[in-house]
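Dear colleagues,

I hope this message finds you well. In preparation for our joint manuscript, I am sending the Carboxypeptidase O (Oryzias sinensis) sequence together with its predicted structure, so that both groups work from identical material. I would be grateful if you could confirm receipt.
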Amino acid sequence: MPIMTNSLGLHFVALISILSAATVKGAEYDYYKYHPMEEIRNWMAQMVMDYPDVVTILDYGQTYEKRTISLLKIGLESEKRKKAIWMDCGIHAREWIAPAFCQYFVKQILQSYKTDTKIDTMMRNMDFYVTPVLNIDGYMYSWKDNTTRLWRKNRSPGPSGDCYGTDLNRNFDANWGTIGISFNCSSDIYCGSQPVSEPEAQAVTYFVGSRKDDILCFLTIHSYGQLLLVPYGHPNFTAPNYNELVNTAMHHCGHFL
Ligand SMILES: *[C@@H]1O[C@H](CO)[C@@H](O)[C@H](O)[C@H]1NC(C)=O
Ligand SMILES: *[C@@H]1O[C@H](CO)[C@@H](O)[C@H](O)[C@H]1NC(C)=O
Ligand SMILES: *[C@@H]1O[C@H](CO)[C@@H](O)[C@H](O)[C@H]1NC(C)=O
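The corresponding structure tokens are as follows:
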């Protein structure tokens, strides 16, 4: 499961060990299959009902097609201002296992915090902001039929109206339009007409930007390859804590080698 950060230069914390720490309980929701968007929305509401003391839903934006973008805020209430970990899944529509992972992760921490002191401590000291599906329009389009299954981008029309979609993780205002992108709207790696042109990227930028002093870690979950990527993804710039990022990543990947 690759865990990547974007280019915000935030500290990296690997969470993989939590997953193996928790026990799997039988539940009605099937965590071992892919779910269409409507079921994922219902599942989010169910999490709030099942764990009202730790889970709330926050709506923080709208997609191009005017669907509400929501996240689960997970953490115990605290008098003091809490730090937070951001995790988004499903920025690339066709990478279906990423939303499935986010849901599985949420289930695991919620099922185990009462018995696992490490996770309980995390829940007391931090909040998790988990967006199971960020690119909702694209995700739903990838479920439409077998001609759209491999759709990756969002669904906004390009400048000339004869092509669709911006590759949302290439739309952020971080070395925008420099490398690993295309300015051709028909391309799967089209970066948009300008930085943060897309409503989905705006929603994340605003939500994270307005809380940047509190956010310890920014994780974005993909499934295109078996890679763990760290900032900045640019040949000429290195994150100030690059060594820490790589060491942390290698330490946790070590569990799987
Ligand atoms: C796609 O779906 C159509 C209609 O259900 C079916 O006839 C066709 O064989 C499918 N194509 C592939 C490549 O699966
Ligand atoms: C844009 O990309 C599409 C699809 O890859 C390609 O067919 C087209 O020729 C490209 N246009 C230009 C101007 O490069
Ligand atoms: C990185 O620096 C080299 C040397 O100055 C330059 O030629 C290249 O264009 C830079 N790369 C990017 C993506 O800015």
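For the figure legend, we might mention the following. The radius of gyration is 18 Å. DSSP finds seven helices and six strands in the chain.

With kind regards,
E.M.
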